[in-house]
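User: Quick one: structure for sequence A, then sequence B.

Assistant: Sequence A:
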Amino acid sequence: MSAPFALALHGGAGPIRNSDQSRETANMGNLLEDGRAMLTKGAPAVDVVIAMIQGLEEAGFYIAGKGAAPNRDGKFELDASIMTSDRDSAGRRAGAVCALSGFLSPIAAARAVMDKTPHVLLAGEGAARFCAKAGLTRVDDPQNYYTPAASSLAGTDALAHGTVGCVALDTSGALCAGTSTGGVLNKMPGRIGDSPLIGAGTWADERVAISCTGQGEYFIRAAAAADVSARMKYAGMSVDAAAAGALADMERQGGDGGLIAVDAGGRIAMPFISHGMRRAACDGQGNITVSVFR
């Protein structure tokens, strides 16, 4: 019997209720098939998560990567993080970038931080210098490259949002989570949300991998991603109950959004409290789902 694997991805919480999401669901469905094929062939979870998020960044359909919107000064500042863990808790690794300008794939930059530095998070100009030295692909003409996807989301308040992310369990038992975003719409220069913050927007340990999407300020206040694992460890909750509980705590702070999670047994949870959440998932038993609204 083959070892279990599982994969889930999201294209952000908060799409306009009952809007046409066929373009986005087709994109997520195609990526899901690619990721499922990679896991079936034994690819490491970290490679699958990076490939899935790069596909979402490149699509331009989400407020991440190509679909990111400029800040109030007209500058594109992007954030991303990646975290991975094997079955042993000593195997955790993480990398992240925030307020990054001028590079094609924030998630690739986050992985480079994880793989090539002793640090977890690099910001702003320092992150850009590191990415240049690492040879990551640049965006030479930001005004013509980016295609802001803001019109696909509900709400025009100061924390209107959109993010992409992925979680995976591979056949070796390793778990990985990643998140990438262009941040909230019309954000102040230098604003950082939960997406690049390990424990707030992204988490992976020997129990569970989580990627969050929503109003980042509230996910930070709730330490939402790490809270899922804590509830599983200390309260003995299932991944479904832990994810729902962490999300409810975030909601009590006043925010909205959702998250995706996969545990070490391959069980997947994708709760949300917003209008909808673009989401897709599959497992080794052939179960596949792609949906947006309830």
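Sequence B:
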Amino acid sequence: MLSYLLAILIIVGVYTLLTQCLNLHYGFMGLINFGVVGFFAIGAYTSALIAIAGYPILLGVLGAIVLASLSAWPLGVLATRLREDYLAIVTLGFAEVVRIVVTSESWLTNGVQGLPGIPQPFSSLGPNAQGLAFLGIVLACNLAVLALIMRLAHGPFGRLVEAIRDDEVAASALGKYPTGPRIQIFMIGAGIAGLAGALYGHYISYIVPDQFVPIVTFYVWMAMIMGGVGSLPGSFIGAAILIGLFEGTRFIDDAFPGSIGVEMASLRLVFIGLALVLFMRFRPQGIMGTRMQS
């Protein structure tokens, strides 16, 4: 039972990092990013390949952050030139390109067979002790990212970003150009998603392209909406609600003993979609968001 709870908390921590990435892009800068899973995949594969090659896990994690950040640079440039709807399409396409590359370049990524045997930290410890230690790493990473975002948000750079987000024309008239801040925010957020991918890969110890499909981005958007757009505590709450829905609906099978697994998987998605609809109807600002005045 303890191992199961630790696994849930670790996955919640991973999704919290992804939600903080999206909150930084959309809640902080107003950039619609439908390619979160692309940076997630880049981080997972980069760290896994470096560790499998025999290098330290920490080096793999740092490589995942750097490569995910660098891959966001061209998207950040596009973000300064595209309207929101076009940017959403481009980022969605980017995520699909990443998935196709890791699927087709089997000489490097092992293609659809995936990468097994990814080194795990604290592997010499027992299962529960290893889970606790890994959970500590995930929590430390979340706290570090939280501190970074708070430092950005409450400093001069944060005020500049808010001014650009609220009225780009007025900010430009005052000599504050949006190109640099947008690129920086996009790269920082991508690095956070790359960190989440690295942690996910080393915890699961096996990654395959099917784990990085577009619906993962939808789940992250759902976590952000339920927690509250732009709310840093809401990132954790939204991720916890999301994973709670996933794990809670697993027990639907017990209520329908004669059911088929595929039918129950579809029913789980119905419950998750219904939860999102209810949030949008009765709490559109999310748990930690501020209610809009009519």
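The mean pLDDT is 85. Residues 2-28 form the longest helix (27 residues).

User: Thanks, that's what I needed.
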